[in-house]
Amino acid sequence: LDNATIPVSDGRAARPETEREEVDRLGSPSFESVGKLFSTPNVEQVIPPPEEEETPILAGPWATGVAIKGNYSSRPALILPARRDKAGMLAGAQDDASASDKENELWREALVLVVDGLELTYSNCKQIVAAVAPAEVRAEGRRNAALGDFRNRVIQQIIYATDGWKPDRIEPLLTTLQTDERLRQQLGLLERSAREAEGLQAEIRRLQEAELKKPKGSNAREETSEQIKEAFYRTRSLDIRIRACLDAARDLPETLDAYDKLGEAWDSVNPFKIFR
Fold this sequence. Notes:
By secondary structure, this protein is mostly helical.
């Protein structure tokens, strides 16, 4: 994430699945396809262009803005045991009565070597543990500079698309999209739509400035005005996609959980289960 920037989209957007692609995916109507209809949620398919089919930038809990600082450095596993001196560690050592004098001598030499090495090991562990907290601070700073900025940009586009939703209403839905792996496609669509909307908004501002410089009533000014309208209508379609992604975050997890429970219930009474 060092010095990383997330660019505005070049204008390509995800497209709805065509009827032909749906047939290719599901096959021709049959008794089996009717069975699938009752066994899986009827969720609209959205296919991104192959070159944009990638892991969403904001996927995962760490991209939600949750604190990194203190998350690892406060764990009990990083609490070092009390430091003991060499004499204290050797105080309870005794010879093994069942071993020979030579064997006991070798064990004593080996024990001394181990104890001598523990001093250096303890010092190294202390340095490593002390380095965790500063590393958390640096990681959080890098995360906020790149992912945090992009997340805020996505939230801003959601505000535009929803005609002014407050961030506290958006945050839970966006966090669900980021953390529920079943909604990766919707999160990717949201990110691409937000980036494309940014690009169109910049294009609208550029065209508006160009329009003002052209003579009133001229063909050139009328053409620019039409380009502005076209870009504006494209932002409206992106608003619909963005709102659809939020609807998915609100409704799909509960729906998918219900289908999973229904499948488990049917599976529990399936008389042919023992033959699997």
